[in-house]
Design goal:
It is a single chain. This protein has 2 domains: about 10-65, DNA polymerase, domain 1 (Orthogonal Bundle), CATH 1.10.150; about 70-340, Alpha-Beta Barrel (TIM Barrel), CATH 3.20.20.70. Helices cover about 30% and strands about 20% of the residues. It has 11 helices and 14 strands. The protein has helices at about 15-25, 30-40, 55-65, 125-130, 135-150, 175-185, 205-215, 230-235, 245-255, 275-285, 310-325, and strands at about 10, 65, 70-75, 85-90, 95-100, 105-110, 115, 130-135, 160-165, 200, 220-225, 265-270, 290-300, 330. The strands form 3 sheets. It has a 10-stranded mixed sheet with strand order 3-4-5-6-9-10-11-12-13-14. The protein is globular, with a radius of gyration of 21 Å. The protein binds S-adenosyl-L-homocysteine (SAH) and iron/sulfur cluster.
């Protein structure tokens, strides 16, 4: 008998690949669309329950394939309604996903890697080092799980209306696995979310920003965090490979590929590091006249960090200065602090780290 491990996991597989698999089975392409709807719209992973597929096809699928979901290690609920799950990802490693309910939307913040190699100075995930890329199944499985265990929203929509790649890892350093996930998130046969509701957050792997713009132009958020190269080199080390000028050029090209697009710039507010009015002016100079919005993130501390959160007043002055300069600027409300689910606090558990340093060839080169 064949064990499940010898079978093909259809979870996270790109529609094109599924079509090829169905063609091999002698099936028509529309069968793929039926299967996608069963999987992602109805959350069914048992082929036998897919009643509009013929009995013989269901038997063939059961013999050769599975829909295997990632294993959930634990669930944590915050007093503000935020829910965090830890997923087991082999040999004691864990990754996290966080659901943030709001009146107008339900946002799932998902992870793309076990740890992260990019080593930003203020990030708990970066401090752990890198272990491995998640597979497309492990990434989309986070969305599947949230939609399965959470009730539908009051208007009947699935719980997850928005997905942001702001959990653990750098999504554009895991490009090959992330793109099929994006396609499934926006496909009408799978989750059917609009491109505006799916956001890739990157610290700036420029060649992949360009590629993504051509292949799958979802919403883009860029972790800028500093208005000049000297400071950004220190707190976002990937800047040494792709400095601000190069990054912003790629952003404007990305935005220009679709009408009415803008790029969101994330800016973590670190006390006495990047939070002066002079920094705000420098930032406004960089973004002025371009399709940009700024989202200020109050720094979330974690054990061992040298940084402190800027004061509430400082953040307000900074935001107002940007607005006075004509830049759209908001401040992110911190959610889920009591369960360590806030931005940058996701640590999961990375024990077998594979230290990778900037400048080594394997940073961000898992291209398709
Ligand atoms: N690797 C991607 C996405 C994951 S991090 C990226 O860097 O964009 C998601 C966001 O959380 C990024 O803007 C990141 O800079 C920010 N972040 C990291 N650590 C943080 C912390 N301790 N407090 C607040 N935001 C943090
Ligand atoms: Fe990696 Fe993003 Fe954290 Fe930087 S901020 S270390 S890119 S997860």
């Amino acid at each position: 008998m064949t064990g499940d491990t010898d079978k093909l996991n259809l979870l996270g597989m790109a529609q094109r690949e599924l079509e090829a698999f169905f063609a091999d089975l002698g099936e028509k392409p529309y069968r793929t669309r039926q299967l996608l709807q069963w999987m992602y719209q109805r959350g069914v992973n048992d082929f036998d329950a897919m009643t509009d597929l013929s009995k013989s096809l269901r038997a063939k699928l059961a013999e050769r394939a599975t829909v295997s979901l990632p294993r959930v290690h634990s669930e944590h609920k915050s007093s503000d309604g935020t829910v965090k799950w830890l997923f087991a990802s082999g040999s004691g490693q864990r990754v996290e996903a966080v659901y943030i309910p709001e009146p107008a939307r339900g946002t799932l913040c998902i992870s793309s890697q076990v740890g992260c190699a990019l080593d930003c100075a203020f990030c708990a995930t970066g401090a752990q080092g890198f272990n491995r890329n998640l597979t497309a199944a492990e990434i989309i499985g986070q969305v599947w799980h949230a939609n399965t265990v959470l009730p539908r929203r009051p208007n009947g929509e699935s719980a997850v209306t928005n997905v942001v790649f702001m959990g653990m890892g750098e999504p554009l350093a895991n490009y090959r696995q992330v793109v099929p996930v994006l396609e499934l998130l926006i496909s009408d046969y799978a989750y059917g979310l609009s491109r505006r509701r799916v956001t890739i957050s990157t610290s700036g792997i420029v060649p992949h920003v360009e590629k993504l713009g051509d292949e799958c132009n979802v919403s883009l958020a860029v972790s800028l965090h500093a208005p000049n190269d000297e400071l950004r080199n220190r707190i976002v080390p990937i800047n040494k490979l792709h400095p601000i000028g190069e990054l912003l050029d790629a952003c404007w090209r990305y935005a220009a590929k679709h009408a009415n697009r803008f790029v969101t710039f994330e800016y973590v507010m670190l006390r006495n590091v990047n939070d002066s009015l002079a920094h705000a002016d420098e930032l406004a100079d960089l973004l002025d006249g371009n399709p940009a919005k700024v989202n200020l993130i109050p720094f979330n501390p974690f054990p061992g960090t040298e940084f402190k959160r800027s004061g509430v007043e400082t953040i307000r002055y900074f935001q107002n200065r940007l607005r006075d300069r004509g830049i759209v600027a908001t401040t992110r409300r911190t959610r889920g602090e009591d369960i360590d689910a806030a931005c940058g606090q996701l640590a999961g558990k990375v024990s077998d780290r594979v230290r990778r340093r900037l400048g080594e060839k394997n940073i961000g080169v898992a291209t398709g």
